[in-house]
Design goal:
Two copies of one chain form a homodimer. Chain A contains six helices and two strands. Chain A has helices at residues 4-18, 27-34, 38-50, 75-83, 112-127, 131-136, and strands spanning 54-57, 63-66. In chain A, helix 1 (4-18) crosses helix 4 (75-83) and helix 2 (27-34) crosses helix 3. Chain A binds chain B through residues 1-2, 7, 10-11, 14, 35-36, 75, 79, 84-85, 87-90, 102-104, 110-111, 113-115, 117-118, 121-122, 125-126, 128-129, 133-135, 137, and chain B through 1-2, 7, 10-11, 14, 35-36, 75, 79, 84-85, 87-90, 102-104, 110-111, 113-115, 117-118, 121-122, 125-126, 128-129, 133-135, 137. The structure holds a DNA duplex.
DNA sequence: CTAAACTCTATCGGTTTAATAGAATTTGTA
DNA sequence: TACAAATTCTATTAAACCGATAGAGTTTAG
């Protein structure tokens, strides 16, 4: 499941993607437009900035704007940024790999192989969902 | 991600699937064999029993055994039993559907459609992973 | 200088999770 | 019938996580 943070992040990106080119959106604008608690959204936007999906302008008349093409922002990336691994267990993860503590012999995890199959398919599907593809709908 | 419960459940089922037909496994046996805390495993086995995956014999010389074919127990079912929805948001879930509280108009959720695509693909993949397929590896 | 915005850090209450504890019940057998 | 060995049930715990809020600090335009 997606955390609220990830869900809100997607909605915020969607909102930004729908604005005119070069428009800068204030946090309060996005919060109202996408129905997200403002103070919570502030944190999320900072995370998105650190992740290089958006950038910001400070001070009066500042705000946020996309710096990555809406065709290139995928559900997989946003899920990873906010919720971590896409795989069902750390031992099957590409970006958040950790060995199982309860598997007797290393790489002798009975689940790993099957879970890697799932990960590959899920990942592929999630990479096919972009902000642009969601806007169109 | 899978919870520890779901992971342990899969490992316990795997252990049971590897035993001789008609063999009854004591909890302590499974716990040692699959490296699972015994008292925690007790609860998990009860859940698996309520889910009709295993059955038990009480009293001395009692224990647990599979009552569902290892070809018919899928990762999807175990995941649902212990962790709930497979979809990324409740509004995209088949078995745990709930409307989004923060979507202005009902069925106007901008994410729902995309997430249902993901759900379908992930579900299909997870239904392809059975206990039998994991044992073979 | 001031207003309006982003930035940063801390905190809070609630829920969930992983695990443990212990008493109750059931059953086979000596 | 008593006992031992097993499941069953309910409660509790400690820690982590989550969603959200608060407030002080910094930056910028005018």
């Amino acid at each position: 499941m997606l955390s609220h943070k990830a869900k809100y992040a997607l909605k915020a990106l969607l909102y930004l993607a729908e604005q005119d080119e070069n428009h800068i959106s204030k946090t309060i604008e996005i919060a109202d437009g996408a129905n997200i608690p403002k103070k919570f959204l502030e944190q999320i936007l900072l995370d998105l900035k650190r992740g290089r999906f958006v950038s910001s302008k400070q001070g009066k008349f500042g705000g946020y704007y996309l710096i990555k093409s809406k065709n290139e922002i995928t559900l997989a990336e946003i899920h990873r940024l906010f919720d971590g691994a896409i795989a069902l267990l750390p031992c099957a993860s590409l970006n958040f790999y950790e060995p199982c503590s309860d598997c007797k012999t290393e790489s002798e995890c009975s689940l790993r192989h099957g879970l890697m199959l799932i990960r590959d398919k899920t990942l592929k599907a999630m990479e096919g969902i972009t902000i642009a593809s969601l806007v169109k709908k």
